[in-house]
Amino acid sequence: MQLTRLISFVLLTLCSLVTLPSLAGGTISNATLPAAKPGTVKLFVNRIGSGKAMDVRNDTDVPVEVVLRLTHMVNVTGVGKGVVRKTVPARTRMRIATLRKRQAGYPLMYQQSFSYSLIYSPEPGKKGSVGGYVYALPWKGGPFSISQGAGGDYSHTSPKGRYAVDIAMPEGTPIVAARAGTVLKARDGQHGRMPNPAGNYVRILHDDGTHSAYLHLKRGSVKVKPGQQVKVGSLLGHSGNTGRSTGPHLHFVVQKAYGDSMLSIPFRFSQPVSTLPNFASND
Predict the structure, then answer these.
(1) In contact, 48 and 26? CB cutoff 8 Å
(2) Which of 192, 226, 253, 257 has its Cα between 20 and 30 A from that of 210?
(3) Average pLDDT for residues 59-76, to the nearest whole number?
(4) Could you report the per-residue pLDDT of 93-109, keeping only the tens digit for each?
(5) Cα–Cα dist 9/45, whole Å
(6) Is residue 174 part of a domain?
(7) Are residues 79 and 160 both part of a single domain?
(8) CA distance 94 to 87
(9) What pLDDT sits at residue 90?
């Protein structure tokens, strides 16, 4: 199964309903929110008069597309056929729907579901199919399989790692550059899980400003230094089990600067990579 299938997923999360006091005037404009824990998107239901207003708070660093579906509607107006689809900017709270009664004196009745997906492809804030550079496989040998894909529930849930992939492989497997560029950072001296969750790693800057990062490398195996130019296939080091790792594997991610942070962005490999169920466990 190609990686493009993994990164075409739509992350669906049902959100708990929280009743809040109605805002002044019963309306809300887009409002920028302070920085918060990434990855939080919530639906709030507020009572306004005899109706209800539905707001979405997006605490992530990227825009999200939200979908609100209302079914079995009785005495409800204001939402058409019951499907509301909106884009909520990063760090924003936004009203997506206002429910009104068709007839006063009768209750509003409906069932609802709420989901969202990150608008992250190919660049933050822009919709589009995954395109751009095609990355060579960043290892030699195999064949190997993906042990945790994009959006994996163990560690691929933050904006920095949303589209990362973990490839299970024996410790000592040669890790090579998937794209030409300049080595920005490299760590080679970590022996276990601490202090850096990435363990030993190499980070490469590419000519379009994106970065690729190769994590959890074996101690003492890194062959490159910051400032060094590398080509596709250049040996970077060997796979290991350092940092926050549940077993020997390579964590590979492509990122782009977004504000003061680095955000994971979708990418594609030049060859298919077989997949396994996400067996990563939180232990």
Answers:
(1) yes
(2) 192
(3) 83
(4) 999 999 999 999 899 89
(5) 27
(6) yes
(7) no
(8) 9
(9) 77
Q: What is the pLDDT of residues 3-36, one digit of tens each?
A: 333 333 322 222 322 222 222 222 233 444 444 4
Domain coverage including residue 107: 40-118
Q: What is the DSSP letter of 139?
A: B
- Domain co-membership, 191 together with 251: yes
Q: Tell which phi-psi region holds residue 105, choosing left (phi > 0), alpha (psi between -120 and 50) or beta.
A: left
**DSSP reduced 3-state for 213:** strand
User: Do residues 143 and 217 share a domain?
Assistant: yes
Q: CA 141, 142, 144: angle at the middle one, nearest 5? A: 140
Residue 14 resides in a domain? no
pTM for this entry: 0.54
Q: Which residue has the higher pLDDT, 147 or 10?
A: 147
Model confidence at 110, in pLDDT bands (50, 70, 90)?
A: very high
Q: Is residue 16 part of a domain?
A: no
Taken as a whole, the chain contains a residue count of 283
Sort residue 199 into left (φ over 0), alpha (ψ -120 to 50) or beta: left
The enclosing domain of 79 has a CATH number of 2.60.40.10
Whether 142 and 265 share a structural domain: yes
Q: Computed over its alpha carbons, how large is the radius of gyration of the chain?
A: 22
Residue 274 lies in a domain: no
